[in-house]
Design goal:
The complex is a heterodimer of chains A (316) and B (345).
Chain A (H helix, E strand, L loop, with lengths): L9 E12 L2 E12 L3 E5 L6 H8 L7 E6 L4 H11 E4 L11 H9 L8 H7 L15 H13 L5 E5 L7 H16 L3 E6 L2 H7 L2 E6 L2 E6 L1 H6 L5 E7 L8 H5 L4 E7 L2 E6 L2 H14 L4 E8 L2 H9 L7
Parallel strand pairs in A: 3-7, 3-8, 5-6, 6-7
Antiparallel strand pairs in A: 1-2, 1-4, 8-9, 10-12, 10-13, 11-12
Helix pairs in contact in A: 3-4, 3-5
Chain B lengths: L2 H15 L2 H21 L8 E7 L1 H12 L4 E5 L2 H9 L5 E5 L6 E3 L5 H17 L20 H31 L2 H6 L5 H31 L7 H22 L6 H18 L14 H6 L1 H15 L7 H21 L4
Helix pairs in contact in B: 1-8, 2-6, 2-8, 3-5, 6-8, 6-9, 6-10, 6-12, 8-9, 9-12, 9-13, 12-13
Chain lengths: 316, 345
């Protein structure tokens, strides 16, 4: 590798990135640094600028301004080298339906200098049984795994995945997650975008939450959730449409850090479930309010997004 | 050949042969068309012209005797009114009005070629019957050899039309389709060489060209006896150059559009005038003199003229130099412009 510039410990660095389409600002003042060997997630709602950001990193889009360094190199000066070192899966690519799985992987393999054996890659993405099948006959999950196979057949150092599991059934999602985890375990770097909080929590070492083209939070999933000062979320609704408990009193309950009210549904965030739940129940009893529903869950990245933006990921 | 170029070419080829419709339209269709046209325009024995004779009985008899000496004429005696009706409805080409001995009047439509031929034949027979002596001795030799029939004219035209259609569709369609499906963008995200990507279309096009040529030329030579008077190698060269020019035109058409519909419109816009003007089914000389410079500059006109010169006249490359130059210019200009404006992502 001596003819390549030294590969630093930073796999991807983005500084002051701007990109707009006409009047629409897609990415604004975006800054990121991805460490080699980690799985990094860009989490955000549709239209947050994730795909624009990742395609600029992939050298497929020109930024309006800002700097992108991939594996210590720039697209302007090292495009050919970078193409050899990156594995890329794009959103909504339709591979040729007339080719078989093996023929497709073989075609992509032929473009690279470093080549993983076609059969190994097909086994890795669990498509052995479909290796002779035409791409047109594959299911959505199988097509997506084939897209990943094409991305890794060149033995990349850095893998970009744009919404890899969007539209897939739960089983296909888990198969892809295993695949990404395995790739990451080989010491390679993964950068992925997703609007599924469970995907980001499960796969990513660190997550950047992106909204309106900006990074609004960046840390490990655990630290992001901890920043809520609330490990738990207690959701409840009350009998009777006019039921209107004193919100200040609710906020003052034992262990409660915040309250959200969405029509008739209440959400309390709490540090300690075992203190908050009994005090909530006794509060309701004192005020002669009847519970219609009560549920508790652990806080997620979704709650982080909601607390940062006031919106849910899915309807943002 | 580099592995990637081989794989890309194989891909082109697989995509093509796994599309049964494409195989039919590019290989079988031109043959079916040549069969249809060969049957429709097959050569018949020299036609007999029908002539009606009217007038005074004795004069009619003299005229009928004279006309009977001409093998190309079938004459019948009719009354004046049925004779005129037969002329109007095309049952006879000419009415010979023999009112009195020594005078003859021909009634016919001088815009009908068969009527004009009938008049010449009938007049010749009647004048000789009347005692005319020809000052010169003439004899005739019939030349009815392959090379001057309609099928001979149309097969090179079909070949040229196939080169155009397969070049423009065969290259334009897959590129626009790949762009629409974002496959082109995905390929751009690999180290794939753009030159090899475009080169793979050229290679697969040449490969299929061999089959196109063998199918149509082989079929029409065997079944219709269409002549192949020129060098086969030079015929192949003309076809290859034509395939390059039309491929470059297909590339130019496919350089920008993001949808199949947009590309189809452009393809029809490019091909339709050439189907009509460039002498596929009838000679391009039929169009007015004023538009001839434009017609002669079209690539299909040049290809068709060069193919006919090679196949029918046995002309060498040096004879079709101007045509080859026109084709080469189309190739270079289309290719350069296409590369410059090509939308890769």
């Amino acid at each position: 590798m001596s003819k390549f510039p030294a590969v630093t410990n930073t796999a991807l660095a983005i500084r002051d990135l701007h990109k707009s389409y006409g009047d629409v600002l897609a990415v604004s003042n975006l800054e990121l640094a991805v460490t080699a060997g980690e799985c990094f997630g860009l989490l955000g709602p549709n239209g947050a600028g994730k795909t624009t950001t990742i395609e600029i990193c992939e050298g497929l889009l020109e930024p309006d301004s800002g700097e992108v360094e991939v594996l210590g190199m720039r697209w302007k000066t090292h495009e050919r080298v970078l193409r050899e070192l990156l594995g890329i899966q794009l959103q909504e690519t339709q591979l040729s339906e007339k080719l078989t799985v093996t023929e497709t992987v073989r075609l992509f393999q032929s473009f690279y200098r470093n080549r993983r054996p076609v059969d190994d890659v097909i086994t890795l993405v669990q498509l052995e049984e479909k290796s002779k099948a035409r791409v047109g006959t594959l299911s959505g999950g199988q097509k997506q795994r084939l897209a990943v196979a094409c991305a890794i057949v060149g033995d990349p150092k850095l893998l970009f995945l744009d919404e890899p599991t969007t539209g897939l059934d739960p089983q296909s999602r888990r198969q892809l997650w295993d695949l990404i985890t395995q790739f990451r375990a080989e010491g390679r770097t993964v950068v992925l975008t997703t609007h599924y909080m469970d995907e980001a929590e499960r796969l990513c070492d660190r997550v950047a939450i992106v909204d309106h083209g900006k990074v609004i939070a960046l840390d490990t999933p655990r630290a992001l959730i901890a920043s809520l000062n609330a490990e738990h979320v207690i959701g409840f609704t009350l009998e009777g449409e006019t039921a209107s408990p004193d919100e200040r009193a609710l906020r003052a309950l034992d262990g409660v850090t915040s309250l959200r009210r969405d029509n008739g549904a209440f959400e309390l965030k709490s540090m300690e479930l075992r203190r908050t739940v009994p005090s909530l129940l006794s509060f309701l009893e004192r005020n002669q309010l009847q519970l219609a529903e009560l549920r508790t869950r652990s806080a997620t990245l979704e709650d982080v997004f909601v607390s940062l933006t006031g919106r849910h990921l899915r309807d943002a | 050949m580099r592995d990637s170029l081989r794989q890309l070419t194989l891909t082109r080829f697989r995509e093509f042969v796994r599309e049964p419709e494409a195989l039919f339209w590019s290989l079988a269709f031109p043959i079916l068309l040549s069969v249809g046209l060969g049957i429709a325009f097959r050569n018949r024995p020299a036609e007999i012209v029908h002539v009606a004779v009217v007038g005074d009985p004795s004069a009619v008899r003299v005229a009928m005797d004279a006309l009977a000496t001409s093998p190309g004429i079938k004459a019948e005696h009719l009354e004046a009114i049925p004779a005129r009706l037969a002329l109007r409805t095309g049952k006879v080409a000419l009415v010979v009005n023999a009112r009195v001995p020594g005078r003859v009047e021909y009634e016919y439509d001088d815009t009908r070629p068969d009527s004009r031929a009938a008049r010449l034949l009938a007049d010749d027979a009647i004048q000789r019957g009347g005692g005319r002596v020809d000052p010169l001795h003439v004899s005739e030799r019939y030349v009815r050899e392959p090379g001057s029939r309609y099928i001979d004219f149309v097969v090179p035209g079909l070949l040229g039309m196939g080169l155009m259609g397969n070049g423009i569709w065969g290259i334009g369609f897959p590129i626009v389709d790949a762009r629409r499906k974002r496959l082109l963008k995905r390929l751009m995200a690999t180290p794939m060489s753009r030159a090899e990507y475009l080169g793979s279309f050229v290679f697969s096009r040449f490969f299929l060209l061999v089959f196109e040529l063998l199918a149509l030329v082989g079929f029409s030579a065997l079944v219709f006896g269409v002549p192949l008077r020129g060098s086969l190698l030079q015929l192949g060269l003309i076809c290859a150059l034509g395939a390059l020019a039309f491929g470059a035109l297909g590339l130019l058409i496919a350089a920008r559009p993001r949808t199949i519909e947009g590309a189809s419109g452009l393809m029809n816009l490019a091909m339709m005038p050439m189907w009509i003007l460039s002498g596929v089914f009838f000679s391009s000389e039929n169009f007015p003199r004023a538009v001839q410079p434009v017609i002669q500059a079209l690539p299909l006109t040049a290809v068709n003229d060069a193919l006919r010169a090679n196949m029918l006249r046995g002309a060498g490359l040096e004879v079709v130099g101007p045509e080859l130059a026109i084709i080469a210019v189309w190739f270079v200009v289309c290719f350069m412009v296409a590369l410059r404006i090509f939308r890769w992502r």
